[in-house]
Design goal:
single chain, about 250 residues, Glutaredoxin, 2 domains, 4-stranded mixed β-sheet, 4 helices, about 30% strand
């Protein structure tokens, strides 16, 4: 009887260890963008500036008390890339990975190396000091769905007094907004507030295409709190800032 009990316990413990080893090389995070010239991704799990999101508009200036839970992930031509539909591609066969690795897209990394969580102290934002981050080789990358919120969290300004206006379009001939931005919007800004504008050409393969209208265009206003308004009516953008005047 004692022998049978011993064998049963051995089998249970053995299965648990196998499961742990199978998952030891897996971790998830968000990419800062496509791989660099050395086929290396920067993958952020969390930092003390943007939390679990990669953020744009961060300059090279020093950041006090800044630390990151982030990693460099090396790709090879044989690294499997699993897209949202479950289709598998070899990284070496991808002609352009810009839309697969949109900034702030969440991915799952599978590595044969055992992954260990590590926080690294940096003087500047992680994209400016990647050489100090731990390195892993990827056997497989799973692309998780990219949503509008991922785009918004990346582009939202950090400063409370700033707004960011984006105009999405597919035809450059439709862009007639720049001359109107200053005259239509700045009179309704509060003291010391600023607004910057950018046109955003939406290619058919861009995952953001499913969330915005581009016939002929749509407008997204972002603040440090995220989305303020998304509309295809320019007058609604003006009305939004007019209504803020009394706040």
């Amino acid at each position: 009887m004692k022998c049978r009990v011993f064998l049963l316990l051995f089998l249970i413990v053995g299965c648990s260890q196998d499961d742990k080893e199978e998952m030891s090389g897996d971790f998830t995070g968000r990419v800062t963008g496509p791989a660099d010239g050395f086929d290396t991704l920067l993958v952020l799990k969390e930092d003390t500036l943007g939390g679990t999101s990669v953020i744009n508009n961060v300059n090279r200036h020093r950041i006090s008390e800044y630390s990151v839970n982030a990693y460099r992930v090396m790709l090879s031509s044989s690294t499997e890339i699993v897209d949202e539909d479950g289709e598998i591609h070899m990284y070496g066969d991808l002609e352009d990975s810009a839309f697969q690795f949109m900034a702030n897209r969440e991915i799952k990394v599978r590595s044969n190396e055992e992954w260990e969580e590590k926080w690294t102290e940096l003087d500047r934002y992680l994209s400016y000091q990647p050489r100090f981050l731990p390195v892993y080789k990827a056997e497989k990358i799973e692309l998780l769905p990219y949503g509008l919120e991922d785009f918004i969290n990346f582009h939202s300004p950090l400063i409370e007094s700033k707004f960011f206006l984006m105009t999405f379009h597919k035809d450059d001939d439709d862009i007639t907004i720049p001359s109107n931005v200053i005259s239509d919007l700045t009179p309704h800004l509060h003291s010391r507030e600023q607004i910057s504008w950018q046109s955003f050409f939406v290619a058919e393969d861009n995952p953001i295409d499913r969330y915005v209208h581009t016939d002929p265009m749509s407008h997204l206003v972002l603040s440090n709190e995220g989305k303020e308004i998304l509309t295809d009516d320019w007058q609604e953008v003006i009305d939004y800032f007019k209504e803020r005047e009394g706040d």
